[in-house]
């Protein structure tokens, strides 16, 4: 994966928990343009470890002068978002990946419905700019608990097709009303908590929407957990995965070669064969099917963890 | 040095020819003395100076003649270029990629000036000058895909990603190894590869699709593929099989060296930025057996490869009917000596 070194040129608090970061090329060169819904992976070096989190780009996809992301601080996380909030400052140089997209618009759609819950607004901020430029009809529905927490409000234009639902104010999102009666050929995209993604999928199914018109993105940062050990089959090496480290990060720190892309359990790139498993894999990804999870023969090291006596990977 | 372009034809009197320099830089596809399916993928661009791998889109002595041949094919059959409505943005992505690359890599032949969305493109070899507005198709004489691929050697397929698969939803296909865009357009990766023998069972396509879906922007790749063609014909399409199929029967022991061509495809893979589509350019290079034999390593190796190839592959690649004559012709150049590793001539 191609990497880019960029300079932090703006940091802004959008809400008590969410900060916006702006990155530019240190010499002012143009950055690669991208497609709505794309993300970048940000490297956060801390001592021996390089933590990498993926964040959706929220800036204009056709504007190469800068990239912007919005990061919500997760105090219960592995420390990636805390690093962004407390360590990254204007003037710093950081390393990011070139943009990649696991949540692209299906440009065949006659109309696009974008449904965001909380920080799930981020991929839609670039998508709505692309939809505007493509002159495609769309509606955006943004649900948040309170106005204070709704970091996206500062980044959304005021327009008739942009709907904000603040539950504290009694304006809960009514998925039935949103999805019912949409023209044939409409696609719906959801980003937010698992519950919201499932509710939209269920509602769309009840209304007879084709599955191929229902899209979602739920990739999140890897959760922390109990430390555990893993054995690399080719070398016999035993590696300890610390509480605030993902399995992928631990393998990388031990110089085990492993492929990755999204680092959020969505792209399938780091899927690894399990050669011995005496215990239980905690599957936290969105890639493996229920059957594959139950078999315990494959794991997504970017997200998943392990509890038990022995886990050996085909690496 | 300014590039000289050949005055030559790829049909009728078949005056196509390779200069000695063109022969030396031919992308010979075999890096060992036998052939089996392999993914053989490398990063692209990048390679020895002067090789067809050096630049993103290679321009060589056949450029002008190949573009003339494409125009003839399109005049007869406009369906060789198709773009489903959702692929126009990918067409613009491809146009940008090709124009930027060519202007950078061949500044004496091409130039591109950009002021916001006002673009000015000059293609000296083809005598084209165009001012247009980027992303506004009404400012070009035809759609962006057709416009730019009338000025770029090789075929171009644009693949749309959805449902974990790739869909052949646009292309410019006039120099193909016996497949039809009009037939394949709208198919997914497994559907359009269905005719390839054995590969599906071997899991080749599952792996290839997984690889392609993981290609990201700013990181492109290439592989070589090959087949055999009688006469230097670019348009070996199913639509025109009646024109070129019978020519396979014109091979004799006397003319096989001059009339039988090794046909190599330099395939590259690009993730396009705005559309997130994949571009799949397929550039065709032709070299006659007698020209290949000017490089002793290639003649030895080609003899061994074609002699020992799986019969199903000889059938699929369409040269089984002439295989014996080809192998007999090449045998005279094979003294049994060892060949050096890699594809480049000694």
From TrEMBL, chain A:
Keywords: 2Fe-2S, Dioxygenase, Flavoprotein, Iron, Iron-sulfur, Metal-binding, Oxidoreductase. It comes from the Bacteria. InterPro entries: 2Fe-2S_ferredoxin-like_sf, 2Fe-2S_ferredoxin-type, Beta-grasp_dom_sf, Cbr1-like_FAD-bd_dom, DmmA-like_N, FAD-bd_FR_type, FNR_nucleotide-bd, MRET. The keyword Metal-binding applies. It is an enzyme of class 1 (oxidoreductase). GO terms for molecular function: 2 iron, 2 sulfur cluster binding; dioxygenase activity; metal ion binding. Its EC number is 1.-.-.-. Residues 228-315 form the 2Fe-2S ferredoxin-type domain. Pfam families: DmmA-like_N (PF22290), FAD_binding_6 (PF00970), Fer2 (PF00111). Residues 1-106 form the FAD-binding FR-type domain. This is Phthalate dioxygenase reductase. It comes from Tropicibacter naphthalenivorans.
Automatic annotation (TrEMBL), chain B:
InterPro entries: HODM_asu-like (IPR021848). This is DUF3445 domain-containing protein. It comes from the Bacteria.
């Amino acid at each position: 994966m191609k990497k880019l070194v960029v300079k932090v040129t703006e940091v802004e608090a959008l809400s008590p928990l969410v900060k916006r970061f702006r990155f530019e090329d240190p010499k002012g060169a143009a950055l690669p343009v991208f497609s709505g819904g794309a993300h970048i992976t940000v490297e956060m070096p801390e001592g021996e470890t390089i933590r990498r989190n993926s964040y959706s780009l929220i800036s204009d996809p056709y504007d190469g002068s800068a990239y912007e992301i919005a990061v919500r601080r997760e105090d219960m996380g592995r420390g990636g978002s805390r690093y962004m909030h407390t360590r990254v400052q204007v003037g710093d140089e950081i390393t990011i990946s070139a943009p990649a997209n696991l949540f692209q618009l299906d440009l065949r759609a006659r109309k696009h419905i974008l449904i965001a819950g909380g920080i799930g607004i981020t991929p839609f901020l670039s998508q709505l700019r692309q939809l505007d430029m493509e002159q495609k009809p769309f509606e955006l529905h943004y649900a948040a608990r309170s106005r204070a927490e709704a970091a996206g409000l500062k980044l959304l234009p005021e327009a008739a097709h942009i709907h904000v639902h603040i539950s504290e104010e009694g304006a809960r999102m009514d998925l039935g009303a949103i999805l019912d009666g949409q023209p044939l050929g409409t696609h719906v995209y959801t980003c937010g908590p698992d519950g919201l993604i499932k509710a939209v999928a269920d509602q769309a199914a009840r209304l007879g929407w084709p599955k191929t018109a229902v899209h979602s993105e739920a990739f999140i940062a890897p959760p922390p957990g109990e430390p555990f050990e893993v054995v690399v089959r080719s070398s016999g090496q035993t590696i300890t995965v610390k509480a605030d480290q993902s399995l992928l990060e631990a393998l990388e720190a031990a110089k085990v070669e492993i492929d990755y892309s999204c680092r959020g359990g969505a792209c399938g790139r780091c899927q690894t064969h399990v050669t011995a498993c005496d215990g239980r894999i905690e599957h936290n990804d969105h890639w493996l099917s229920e059957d594959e999870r139950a078999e315990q023969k494959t794991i997504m090291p970017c997200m998943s963890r392990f509890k038990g006596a022995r886990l050996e990977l085909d690496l | 040095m300014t590039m000289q372009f050949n005055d030559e034809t790829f049909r009728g009197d078949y005056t196509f020819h390779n200069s000695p320099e063109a022969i030396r830089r031919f992308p010979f596809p075999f890096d060992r003395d036998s052939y089996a399916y392999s993914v053989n993928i490398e990063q692209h661009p990048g390679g020895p100076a002067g090789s067809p791998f050096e630049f993103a889109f290679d321009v060589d002595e056949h450029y002008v003649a190949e573009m003339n041949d494409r125009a003839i094919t399109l005049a007869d059959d406009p369906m060789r270029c198709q773009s489903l409505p959702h692929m126009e943005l990918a067409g613009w992505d491809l146009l940008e990629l090709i124009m930027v690359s060519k202007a950078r890599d061949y500044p004496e032949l091409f130039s591109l000036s950009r002021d916001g969305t006002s673009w000015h493109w000059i293609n000296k070899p083809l005598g084209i000058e165009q001012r247009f507005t980027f992303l506004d198709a009404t400012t070009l004489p035809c759609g962006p895909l057709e416009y730019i691929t009338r000025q770029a050697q090789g075929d171009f397929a644009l693949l749309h990603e959805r449902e974990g698969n790739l869909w052949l939803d646009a292309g410019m296909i006039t120099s193909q190894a016996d497949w039809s865009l009009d037939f394949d357009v709208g198919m997914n990766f497994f559907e359009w590869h269905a005719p390839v023998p054995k590969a599906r069972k071997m899991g080749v396509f599952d792996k290839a699709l997984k690889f392609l879906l993981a290609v990201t922007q700013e990181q492109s790749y290439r592989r070589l593929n090959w087949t055999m063609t009688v006469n230097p014909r670019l348009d070996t399409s199913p639509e025109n099989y009646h024109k070129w199929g019978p020519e396979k029967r014109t091979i004799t022991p006397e003319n096989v060296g001059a009339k039988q061509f090794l046909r190599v495809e330099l395939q590259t893979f690009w993730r396009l930025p705005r559309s997130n589509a994949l571009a799949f350019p397929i550039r065709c290079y032709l070299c006659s057996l007698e020209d290949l034999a000017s490089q002793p390593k290639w003649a030895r190796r080609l003899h061994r490869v074609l002699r020992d190839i799986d019969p199903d592959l000889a059938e699929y690649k369409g040269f089984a009917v002439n295989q014996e004559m080809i192998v007999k012709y090449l045998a005279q150049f094979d003294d049994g000596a060892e060949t050096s590793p890699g594809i480049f001539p000694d």
